Amino acid sequence: MKLVFFRGTVPNFGDELNLHVWPALLPKGFLDEDESELFVGIGSIIGTQMDPKARKFVMGSGYAGYMGLPDVHDGTWDIRFVRGPQTASKLKISPDLAICDSAVLLRAMDLPDPAKDVGVAFMPHYESLERGNWAEACRLAGITLIDATEPVDKVLSQLRGAKLLITEAMHGAIVADALRTPWIGAKPIYGGHHMKWLDWAGALDIDLRMNLLKPTSVLEYYIGRTGRGGGQGKVGKISQSALAGIPNTMLTHSAARHLQRMAKLEPQLSADSNIARATERAQAAVSDFVQSRVSVS
Fold it and tell me: At what angle do helices 134-141 and 245-262 cross, to 10 degrees?
């Protein structure tokens, strides 16, 4: 059974969690390279991109519209639980399967020690790191930048040590919430990343508050207004040119001041009872799945 998850040109914390969580929680040798059976784990990866003939086992994944909507009732899907009620509704499966994003299982694992002197931190979406000037904005704001492309252990340590997390990255919020670090949601600059936040929040009965994030570059400003654009496109190249130096600097300073204001907002956390219940249900689903596989073999 092969573990499948999204991997782009750079590592991304939410996706790389798969390599941290599943080898630790599943029996040794449970996962292999047999593509006739797919273990569908953490991330918004439910879609039509997977082999239609393969048997697909879903463990806390989500559907966010990035790929086509699959027919999960075609006999090749075995859904143990999904990220939230919106995914359950889209797939037309029982709402009882909307337990939580499976990153909640970090609560059942040994974790790296909390990093010291993190204080208030900001975690941009990994794409924003490429498109904007967030390292400089955080420096100006006196806020620790948590880089979603850094190794998982480092990011976990920073999230555990943070006094408060402002996050554009959904898995920043998911993991901070699981580890009981207060967080403030920042509405992703790219609108295509919005829906999945509501999916996860619905599973934990969080009254989600998403706060506007100021762009740090001409490219981010353009993407926020149009929903389109990339680093290699016309606007992306202009944003990286000397011509955009002054507006980029002005936008970065404005974003830094905005981060400072955001840090004064009331943070969020799911109820202790809700996160505990989601953890127990996710653990039970994984345990039942492993037992069913062991009994078959």
Answer: 50
Residue position matching structure tokens 């403030």: 184
Cα–Cα dist 105/103, whole Å: 5
At 235, the pLDDT band (50, 70, 90 cuts) reads confident
d(CA 167, CA 184): 6
Quickly list DSSP for 239-289. Answer: HTSGGGHHHHHHHHHHHHHHHHHHTTSPPB---HHHHHHHHHHHHHHHHHH
Whether the Cβ atoms of residue 21 and residue 102 lie closer than 8 Å to each other: yes
Measured in residues, the chain has a length of 297
Q: What is the mean pLDDT of residues 124-150?
A: 96
- Cα 251 to its chain centre, rounded Å, is 26
Average pLDDT over residues 211-233: 86
**Whole-angstrom distance, CA of residue 72 vs CA of residue 69:** 9
Cα gap 91→66, rounded to integer Å:
14
Phi, psi of 257 (to 5 degrees): -65, -35
Helix or strand holding residue 158 (H, E) = helix 152-161
Distance (Å) of CA 274 to CA 99, 202, 213, 227, 286: 10, 11, 28, 34, 18
